[in-house]
Amino acid sequence: MTALVARFRHCYPGFGLDVDVRLPARGVTALFGPSGSGKTTLLRLIAGLEKAADGYLTVGGAVWQDANHFVATHVRPLGYVFQDARLFPHLDVQRNLEYGLRRVPPASRRVSLDGVIDLLGIGPLMHRKPDRLSGGERQRVAIARALAVSPSLLLMDEPLAALDQARKQEVLPYLERLHDALEIPVVYVSHSIDEVARLADHLLVLDAGRVSAQGTPAELMARDDLHLARGDEIGSLIEATVAGHDDAYQLTDVVFPGGRVSLPRQAAAVGERVRIRIMARDVSLTLAAQTGTSIINILPARVARIAEAGPSQSLVALDLGGTAILARVTRKSVDALGLNPGLAVHAQIKGVAIL
Amino acid sequence: MFSAANLAAIVLTLKLASVVTLLLLLIGTPIAWWLANTRSWLKPPVEAVVALPFVLPPSVLGFYLLVSMGPNGPVGHVTQALGLGTLPFTFAGLVVGSVFYSLPFVVQPIQNAFAAIGPGLLEAAATLRARPWDRFATVALPLARPGFVTAAVLGFAHTVGEFGVVLMVGGNIPGRTQVVSVQIYDHVEALEYAQAHELAIVLMAFSFVTLLLLYAVNRRVAALGA
Q: CATH fold of B4-225, please?
């Protein structure tokens, strides 16, 4: 089901935006791309904070913009989380949260404020002014404030970008809880592939004001032509199911189409769905199945494509039989092993991370 | 302690400054809001006109106000048509002259305060369902409060301290247009130095205390904002 149809064409000084997208009615859609690719502009156009000369936008069937109509931002039933939180400095946390809530007619309130406060863990902060909050706390309050208006669409503009690594790790679990608890579509702008891998159900890649690819994060991250991540960051994302635990060695087995890998013992229950990530740098290739190796995850695979990834490196896209992963090897190895599309190989996986 | 004439001048001055400050806040706020937010080509010319009293001799401003409000001036025609007579040498004329003369002292602090808030918080308010007036009243006004305090104090004090415009537009009619600054001039002309001193010391003390309070309050606000 489609929740949001957006067509925008607009020229800004030194930059043109031309997009035509449909986003699903549920789950998190990530807008991903380098700075200057138009992610934030697209989000602002959806919110009506900017007006494209040529635009068409419907959300859940309601027209927000077309040739004759432009619904003002304050009339659109959306929630917006800004990169810099933008809490009202003259109001304490409680009154910040109530600011939007009070302006929503009681009949349209579907979200309980207490529930939102609970979800984001901001109960103890209610009587503090924004300047007495840490960056992570501020961002959690901003998210709660946006949710308190019972939006039918939640827009988030890099809510973690202004935070340091520790604060990011503090806020990310709340975003994941949100993802599971919310019944509304979320559009999430990010330039961090880590956040996308953890949060997104649907991924839209923007480049120079245009959509260069869209699909599930797993599909797109396995593509070596998109350069979603650079250098060491390149990896693939796999939806897997917990198959069992090995109590003796404290390992957990997960399965996915075409493979089964072991990783350090996880708390997840058997049958639970998990996302795992395999970095291209952690995958090496052999022609014959190795014995006498310490690596326990060795999977038969077929070479799908080979792409150059720097002067000495190549990126090899592998098909495990339904699941794609990437391996980063030297160009010398590609020649030495005679790697070619279609060749059967064994992928040795040194590390698997659960997300 | 004051002579009757001096007391009348003080009362008239306070009345004039109060009325003018109130009017200036009403007129200056929309101008300041527009100047802080517009990208129109009209912004520089409007800013220049508002700031003219900073550089013009008050006599120049007073002269043109006198001519335009006089029986043959454009403003004079309008006021006469409305049955109000002409404004020069009346309290109303003094108010009009003072409003022009003190306008930049009120517009600029408010404009700076609005500009410092920036569009970000107002955008946030818009995403939280607040209409434009609502955003202005609940976000822009409270956050610009220090600017309004500065504007009101400067507008009031500057009106109390004006001389040239008042003399040109108001003449020097005791009880109607004779304010403190003009009265002091009168006393000096008549060599009544003791009388002049009585008023001069009052203005001096008033100005010092006003500015002292203003700077003290601004420092406290700055400390709170940090």
A: MetI-like fold (1.10.3720)
